[in-house]
Design goal:
globular, Alpha-Beta Plaits, single chain, 111 residues, alpha+beta
């Protein structure tokens, strides 16, 4: 399995609550239904707790079975079919500070 992790920040003018609600209630349904070859889609929403202030608004994980499936997704993002997803991302994600990285997960401990 391979995953694309995206560190997300909200667009200026959105509150943290507005960002979280849009991401969870609107974008999640679109992304999970339109992304080709998707194996798993995880949204990590920060918890508000004293001593755990955070400069980001969330981390998205999109999983595929193989590097080939990931390459297919990346090529798909350049097509007209992906336009709806990209336009939706532009509604709430500040892409000027968008950080993404590819990862293979190594489980060190699982109880």
């Amino acid at each position: 399995m391979v995953k694309l992790c995206s560190v997300l920040r909200r667009k200026p003018g959105l509150t943290a609550e507005e960002f979280q609600r849009y991401w969870k209630e609107k974008h999640a349904a679109l992304a999970s239904n339109i992304i080709p070859g998707l194996k798993k889609y995880i949204q990590n929403h920060p918890l508000k707790m004293p001593g755990f202030e955070c400069e980001i608004d969330g981390i998205a994980e999109i999983w595929w079975d193989s590097i080939e499936a990931l390459h297919n997704y990346l090529a798909w993002r350049q097509t007209e079919e992906a336009k709806m997803l990209i336009e939706d991302e532009n509604q709430f994600i500040d892409k000027s500070v968008w950080q993404r990285f590819l990862a293979v997960e190594y489980v060190v401990a699982e109880r």
